[in-house]
Amino acid sequence: MSTNARVLEVKNINDIIREFKKIGVDPKGIEIMSPKAIHQLVKLEGIDVRAANIIKQEMLSRGGDAAISRGVYDLKAEKSDIILMGTLKQFKEVCKKLTEQPFELSKIASEIEEILLNFRSSHHTLKAGGYVLDLSQRTYIMGVLNVTPDSFSDGGKFCRLDKAVEHGLRMVEEGADIIDVGGESTRPGAEPVSLDQELERVIPVIELLASQIDKLISIDTHKSEVAREALDAGASIVNDISGLRADEAMVKLVAERGTPVVIMHMRGTPRDMQINPQYKCVMGEIISFLRERAQIAIEAGIPKENIIVDPGIGFGKTREHNLEIMRRLPELKSLGYPILIGTSRKSFIGFTLDLPVEERLEGTAATVAYAIAQGANIVRVHDVKDMVRVVRMTDAMIKSEVVLCRRRT
């Protein structure tokens, strides 16, 4: 007689709770056993060897484990990275014990508890321009509107005011939730434009769009004055590729206006970012950067719930870096912020498929679907009509509750 044995695919604690309920497990049993069913890996960097030894022993004593540098054992190292391996229950017990230990272990315990909570949570609500976006229910689509002559994909197509507004309206009709207006190209090697030139390009477009659409508009800029006038003209989100670094006044402006902000990782500037970009650990460095920039934003008065993070696909990364970011995207959930990702028509797709920019639709679709499965909440795309279909189908497969367009037999 076959037992129909199989390995269960569970991505989070809600998945295992549903499986327990299916077989009729007692509610108290579900409460006790569900933290035992989810196994996590947690990486800590630069830990004092004395603390590292204590952490390893505490993990081992509860049935977990910890991988540490050989230098910890032969006393040749002063610090070590650690990879912890255990169930949620084991982590909870270890963290409780670490709060009683020296060598800043209480602080480390708090950090472990925080990132595990962030990683498990999928509930993000974004408030902007009178709208409330429940990012846990579905993936939101940001349509790209480049009002530039030299963007890598659509440069020059929408420089005229009437063409730009027409394209914005078309993207809304096709299902875009947010229209992202940018007046300065950020393609590799792009030259910066003046403040006046950028304002001249984007403000009329935002004013006209805001008067004609019932959707959010974001301003893609790293200049605080452009952001200020764009918000006055009808924009409700600031999308800053510099991670709030290029203009010191940007943080203060966003805090004063109470608007959501996208903090993106970029190595260098668009002009030089693709000149031999190197990382010791690409995902570790991206997360460290975004954590630091988000903390600076919070200390300046920007509410945590107004922060969105973007790993910056294609901004100071090689093809291999970008592919690794895609594979390891769930690690960004450790920060506890909604994730925006922009892969649309980018060069890592072209290099992988050996295709020019105008033939990257299918490659973009693959990256969008995969990014959503990996935890992305907002996808920034050029081909809105096609990507809306990709997003809705992907949501239907991976979201527990998703509104379907219609029912078909």
Strand order of the largest sheet: 11-10-9-8-7-6-13-12
**What is the molecular shape?**
globular
The radius of gyration is: 23 Å
Q: What is the β-strand count?
A: 13
Biggest sheet layout: 8 strands, parallel
Main structural class: alpha/beta
Q: Please state the average pLDDT score.
A: 91
CATH topology name of the largest domain, in short, is: TIM Barrel
Helical percent range? 40-55%
The CATH architecture of the largest domain can be named as: Alpha-Beta Barrel
| Percentage of residues in strands | 15-25%
Classified by CATH, the class of the largest domain is Alpha Beta
SSE succession: HHEHEHEHHEEEHEHEHEHEHEHEHHEH
Number of domains: 2
Which stretches of 5+ consecutive residues score pLDDT under 50?
Answer: 402-409
Identify the CATH homologous superfamily of the largest domain. Answer: Dihydropteroate synthase-like
What count of helical segments does DSSP give?
15
Q: Termini, distance in Å?
A: 36 Å
